[in-house]
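Supplementary notes (optional reading)

For those who missed the lab, this is the record we used. Protein: Microcin C ABC transporter permease YejB. Length: 358 residues.
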Amino acid sequence: MGAYILRRILLMIPTIFGIMAISFAIVQFAPGGPVEQVISDLTSQGGGDRLSGGGDMLQEVGQDSAYRGARGLDPEFIAKLEKQFGFDKPPLERFFSMMWDYMRFDFGESFFRNTAVVDLIAQKMPVSISLGVWILIFSYAISIPLGIKKAVKDGSAFDVWTSGIIIVGYAVPSFLFGILLIVLFAGGSFLDWFPLRGIVSDNFDSLAWWQKPLDYMWHMTLPLITLLLSAFATTTLLTKNSFIDEIKKQYVTTARAKGLTEGQVLYGHVFRNAMLIIIAGFPGAFISAFFTGSLLIEYIFSLDGLGRLGYDSIVRRDYPIVFATLFIFSLMGLVVSLVSDLIYTWVDPRIDFERRDV
């Protein structure tokens, strides 16, 4: 197993390099970089005449600039912007310099926030951790037992009506369900039971120790219910189908013929094999719960997490944040994938990755 782990770790290097290289190349062809963003802000606010020497009209300088909208801005100012953002260097030099810094976990500073990227990520992390960890705990804690129950009672009335609820929950987009919860329970047209902003109240620090967890869960209730709907549906049906497939196999019939109880058959034999597919989906669920799955929910409930940070950075073309979050989450995905494989061997010792080609 040690050799397999070492090979997987070594393969992470070209994988990360390839992900970053493709993303960096795409960004080079995307219109509206950070320099264009600054130029747009200046020209739309009338700041160009101040920078090019004053007057009622923009001076006719910068007309040969490669940047759209730079007409009237001092070319020296444009050159300073390029140097500030690092665009005075060739793309390859910028890419390899960025990767060298990232290998040392030096992610630089934001272009527009004047704050270190690591500090920004640390500031937004509590929201994403709250959403990601709790949704994983609740979805697995509810979905796996329910999926097993549905597999055992396949075709019964319990299976039919729970499947109906699950399918409806899966079909309804989570953001629409979140808006519905706001209308019903967060000061919309009906009740005003839950807050709409943040994960804690403004007076959180002054609350008693026993009030703080209650305040935290009060703020997290609606976002978690919203996210749990789709995660709950997917994991439940996946668990049910996996257990049904295993229950129909010959080794289950043999175990029953030996006189084992249904509980012994289900949890002593079927559980280990059926859970493999659930474990295989864990890395993707883990990453999406921290970023992709919570983006719209963060906007709807005014939560300032990593999903919102990443989206705002893409819109603003704040490349240090964009590439840093991409690097961090790609690395997390690869590490969690390796951990998932190790869990495979723990759940089913018959699996030996040492004998397989990577």
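If you only remember one thing from this example: The two ends are 12 Å apart (CA to CA).
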